Amino acid sequence: MLGFVKEPVVVTAKINVNLVALTVLGLISRLWGLCYPRAVVFDEVYYGQFVSLYMKRIFFVDDSGPPLGHMLLALGGYLGGFDGNFLWNRIGAEYSMNVPVWSLRLLPALAGALCVPLAYQILVELHFSHCAALGAALLILLENSLITQSRFMLLESILIFFILLAVLSYLKFYNLQKHSAFSGSWWFWLLLTGVACSCAVGVKYMGLFTYMLLLATAGLHFWHMIGDQNLSNVSLLCHFLARGLALIIIPMGLYLSFFYIHLALLYRSGPHDQIMTSAFQASLEGGLARITQGQPLEVAYGSQITLRNVLGKPMQCWLHSHANTYPIRYENGRGSSHQQQVTCYPFKDVNNWWIVKDPGMQQLVVSNPPRPVRHGHTVQLVHGITTRYLNTHDVAAPLSPHSQEVSCYIDYNISMPAQNLWRVEIVNRESDMDVWKTILSEVRFVHVNTSAVLKASGLSGASLPEWGYRQLEVVGEKLSKGYHQSMVWNVEEHRYGKSQEQKEREVELHSPTQMDISKNLSFMAKFTELQWKILTLKNEDTEHKYSSSALDWITMDTNIAYWLHPTTGAQIHLLGNVVTWASANAAALVYLCLSLWYLLRRRRNIYDIPEDAWQLWMSAGGICAGGWAVNYLPFFLMEKTLFLYHYLPAVTFQILLIPVVLQHLGDHLCRSVLLKSMFSALIVAWFSWVYFVYCTLSPLSYGQPALSPSELRALRWKDTWNILIRKP
What we know:
Blueprint: H1 17-31, H2 44-55, H3 68-79, H4 101-125, H5 130-141, H6 144-150, H7 156-175, H8 177-180, H9 184-203, H10 207-226, H11 233-265, H12 278-282, H13 288-292, E1 303-309, E2 318-325, E3 340-345, E4 353-357, E5 378-383, E6 390-396, E7 404-408, E8 422-426, E9 443-447, E10 453-455, E11 472-473, E12 475-477, E13 489-496, H14 502-510, H15 523-536, H16 550-554, E14 560-564, E15 571-574, H17 578-603, H18 611-632, H19 648-668, H20 673-702, H21 709-714
Antiparallel strand pairs: 1-4, 1-13, 2-3, 3-7, 3-11, 4-5, 5-8, 6-7, 7-12, 8-9, 10-12, 14-15
Helix pairs in contact: 1-4, 1-5, 2-3, 3-4, 4-5, 4-6, 4-7, 5-19, 6-20, 7-9, 7-10, 9-10, 9-11, 10-11, 10-18, 17-19, 18-19
């Protein structure tokens, strides 16, 4: 029974020394001196704010992309014990002792380091030699721009890591297809492909480009499988379902989970939530939730309400009126109704309160039991403080002459009768019998007499002149096919009116309101709103000193100064290895020309290279050249401020193309021993040049040692490079 102990237990393992050595070198190059400089470097000033908000559980919206990347940076802060207390207000600010700089920069550095062995494995899985794979990894290792970007609290290195992991996982899955379909390892690499793609998209939407490339590649490979007569229909269906599950369903689920965790962590109200709807704001702890707690849910006749415009940008505003009237004549000579002004006011104020009145009754209080207002009901809106009725008529609005003026009606005993009936249309209703609800219902007010829709036009135009206190214009929009969010309103604050007497009602309106509705807003509702805000929120795009165009990137005619020491010449720049970038461009050009030449020759039934070499050439190009194209060309269509770091995912794929082209040239174009020897010598000389440029630019990548003004001038290899030189 115990015979097995007579023999020693032996464990054997195969260790790829190349892979281990590359991983160690990658870690050294990215982790060395990680705390230097102990100051805010370039976009750390931007991402650091979000890390602090995570630490304090305060909600925010970042229009740059989904939350996974921010959460990973925040994880570094959490592991380092960061409390979130630091003022991220300027580049170069010294970090206080409570900021765990090494921990905050650790995850981007690890991701950048692991890109080195990933590059090696990708070339191996593409069936290129270990020598070519080693060359690809060393080029990534010695790429100055990737080193710089991965050593700080930035997202590009994390994005590139997940992109390369997705590519490697898919290649491993594909290579297992013929011999080990549906095995454990087959499932592992297929599922990891989907997970990595989802993580790439979750870090930045740029990850979508590689995700689409892999989906297209998987679709092409499956199309070839359909023509395989050895596969049954059931087997094909299983393959299709497996790919659909791993590459579409699971990534979508993971993407949702990123937002779920994000929203679970950020449950407190903060300065960013004002652009969200009232329902979203009320679901957060503090802020609007404190005001709306205990409010009635259903709006009834006699309800006292404030109406917030749903658009909420460039600023939130509420329907407002005050005792002042429109001027008899405007500056351009047009006349007005001289009625009481109605505006959209961007601050909470007692003049934002309105009373929902039944046109058939005089009372301004809620009956017992309350009579709820439903979709399609006609109401009058009475201004709480001045008791005048919301009105519109065929008079041109002050700033929008093609729209109707909106006012509170004053009876001047002239031939302009009141037109103050409004039909309530609940835009997000589930049925035509829906009740108008506090915060949750989004409504339009359609004027019964003219069919004009109440609209906050000032959100997309200029504010009123001095006579309107620079408040935002409200109009009756006559041409209202469909609807814009500026025509949609929701009740934010709400109470049931109890006082019929005006003086008592004014006291009531001045008192604070006291229905917790957070439970009514589901995760999917919050996700949908937040996702829409991320996609549509536009920050003011201003010309940045270091912004550039996509054309500048190829020849690296631009750089970015990330940090400058306050007293010495030490500085950090985002600069690529010029030899590597030029070689990558040359490799892309050679690949394109050779591919076109081969295609033309094959069309004439002339085969210059064996079929397996052709398939290898095309598959490697699909990944490397295709990865460069899909990560670069879309920037020509984008209307946003662009920076050199946007090119890093594309140039990573382009660098992988260099050893692909070099091995192909050596195997198929250098046919004699002499040519092969000369070609090898040229590669060694070229690689020595790459290493020399890496060493030369290292002081600008690591920020040390500090260089003298003359040394800095010597590094200005292009007139367009902005190397910072202090004046003596």
